[in-house]
């Protein structure tokens, strides 16, 4: 899914790069001209090990090294907590220091919108979006439901009897992607019994019967599907994805549910980066995006190409934030009015 396709989720508005704090000439480095890192680069995954943020950060760091794109090294550190807000606050405290980056996705919009954090995308410098992923709704292999419609019909009859689990905090991505699809199928979004397990125990809870449905990313289901432990009832993409195992995952759309949810994923720097610093990282992420290593990585994890440069990303984020607020309002959850 390239940038042009992501426009279906709302795109191209008048926000400028300076609105995200990337044009200050008072920060470290010069306002114009060339800039290069003066020390190793810290890449923050605002979560624990495993999962989408951690995997994306580590694969990017590996790609930069394997392809020889960066002269300085890039180390990945995990700063988990608060649905991502602990890591975001850490980077916010590095204002003007371009040697600290982080990976982000829709929770960077959703967590502030639902009131769980005072830090949002406007507090950082968008550098580049790299990929898009999709949500998947999985059940144990012996579960009674054969498709999403059967699941949602039972949820309408007995919402308290079905537990949905995810790694995201309530009101964030795993919760909202499920709620959006369920609401489109006629389920009362407020009735969804969602449990957050941010300690990495989601799959364990699903398999041991403590939860009935696992809302996650497509990538996180592949190995367990291959092992015959779980089944994917549906994914949030517009059309079926290509690749081993995932090509068999039906979409919600093909099951008659008119709703999708995209999980974009990209990279940000702290506030007050200079134009030269932004230009440096744009060039490097573009080079990574175009590399054979990254093409192989996308295929391995079932990711879609979705590169955006800093300006395109800034535009996208403003429009996407408005779209996420509409989603929260439409389903009657976390209405900030």
UniProtKB/TrEMBL annotation:
Q: Does the keyword Signal apply?
A: yes
Segment forming the signal sequence: 1-21
UniProt key word Signal: yes
Classify the source by domain of life. Answer: Bacteria
SUPFAM superfamilies linked to this entry:
Periplasmic binding protein-like II
- One Pfam assignment: TctC
Keywords, ordered alphabetically:
Signal
Please report which protein family the annotation says this sequence is part of. Belongs to the UPF0065 (bug) family.
Supply the name of the protein: Putative tricarboxylic transport membrane protein
